[in-house]
Amino acid sequence: MTEKGKIKFNCEWVYAEPLSIDKLIEINLWRDKLYELGLIGVYESGPNKGVGYGNVSIRSYPPEHFIITASDTGRMPHLTPEYYTEVVKYDFDMNHVKYQGPDKGIRASSESMSHAAVFESDPTINAVVHVHNLDLWNRLIGKVPTTSRQVEYGTPGMAYEIKRLFEETDVKTSKFFAMGGHEEGLISFGRDMEEAGTVLLKHLE
Question: For the purposes of burial, counting CB atoms within 10 Å of the CB of 18, is it exposed (0-12), middle (13-18) or buried (19 or more)?
Fold first, then answer.
C-alpha cells in the first residue's frame, strides 16, 4: 500500500492561533510515548519510505470538534502546538473536512475522517489513537472487530465501516479495532488519552 499519509478528503482551512499548550499536555505525553515505541513514526525503507504514520486526537468543544495531530508529523519526535489542528466540521458524504490552525500548510491528519467516525459513534469517547504495527495487525485482524478489507483508509467508506462496527460488534466494550483495508492500521479509544493508550498497550503485551 503506497498511499499511507495521503489526504483523500477535501480540506478547508480556517486561520486560528496555535492551541494552548495546557490543552495538549496529556495528548502530547501519549503521542511522545507512542513515538518512542515505534507505533507512530516514519517508514525508513520500502515503497513508503519517508512517509509518516500514526496519529492521535482528543475531543474538543463544542463536542463535535476534535484536536488531532497534523498530517505528515510521524517523522517528528515531539510536536509543538502548531502541529496540532482542530477539526471543526466534517461531512462524510461530501468527503470534506474543515479544520483550523495557524498555518495553511499544516493540514489535519489524513485519518481525520476515521477519528470523526469514532467520536460520532459514542459521545463518551474523548480520545482516539491510531497506530501502525504489522505484527500486531497480522495477529489480530479478523479476531477483533475489523473493518472491511475492501475499504481504504481516510475515505467516507472507512468512516461508515467504523460506524458499522459500533452497531454490529462489541467494539464499544473492547475499545479497539483493526482496519482491514489499511495494512498495519489499528485504532484504540477511551474516555481519555490514558484509557485509549492503555487499551492499545495491553494488546502489545
Answer: middle
Query: Are the C-beta atoms of 133 and 186 separated by less than 8 Å?
Result: yes
pTM: 0.94
Between strands 55-59 and 66-69, the pairing is antiparallel
Instruction: Give the pLDDT confidence of 21-77 residue by residue, as tens digits.
Output: 999 999 999 999 999 999 999 988 888 888 889 999 999 999 999 999 999 999 999
Length of the chain: 205
Q: Is the Cβ–Cβ distance between 19 and 84 less than 8 Å?
A: yes
**CATH number of the domain at 10-204, out of 3.40.50.80, 3.40.50.720, 3.40.50.1260, 3.40.225.10?**
3.40.225.10
| Cβ-based burial of 46 (10 A; exposed 0-12, middle 13-18, buried ≥19) | exposed
Count the neighbouring beta carbons within 10 Å of the beta carbon of residue 45: 7
